[in-house]
Amino acid sequence: MTAALAAPGAAPTSGSRELADRLVLIMEGVHASVAALGADGPARHAHDLVRILLDSHRGRG
Questions:
Q1: Rg of the chain's alpha carbons, rounded to an integer?
Q2: 37 φ, ψ to 5°?
Q3: Roughly what angle, to the nearest 10 degrees, separates helices 46-60 and 16-37?
Q4: Long-range contacts of 9-17 (CB under 8 A, 24+ apart)
Q5: CB 32 within 8 A of CB 5
Q6: What residues contact 26, with CB distance under 8 A and at least 6 apart?
C-alpha cells in the first residue's frame, strides 16, 4: 500500500489529508507511549489501530 500511495503521479484520495493527520497522531502517541511505558505497553496495539483506520478509510472511498 505504501508503494501505491507514494507512486509518482498518484492522485490523493478523498480524505487523504485527514488520513495522514490521523496516522501522524497515532505515531506520535506510539512514541510517547513507548517512552513512558515501554514497547510492551499500549503501543503494542498500534498495528491493529492503524489497520482499523486504513480499512475504514478504504471503505469510504
A1: 13
A2: -125, -5
A3: 170
A4: 13/57, 13/61, 14/60, 14/61, 15/57, 15/60
A5: no
A6: 46, 49, 50, 53
Question: Is the distance from CB of 61 to CB of 13 less than 8 angstroms?
Answer: yes
> What is the pTM assigned to this prediction?
0.71
Residue with the three cell numbers 482499523: 52
Most distant CA atoms of the chain, gap in Å? 40
Quote the strand ranges of 1-61, DSSP E: none
Read off the pLDDT of residues 9-47 as tens digits, 9 standing for 90 and up.
666 677 888 999 999 999 999 999 999 999 999 999 999
The three cell numbers of residue 46 are 498500534
Compute the CA torsion angle 21, 23, 29, 32 (nearest 10 deg).
-100
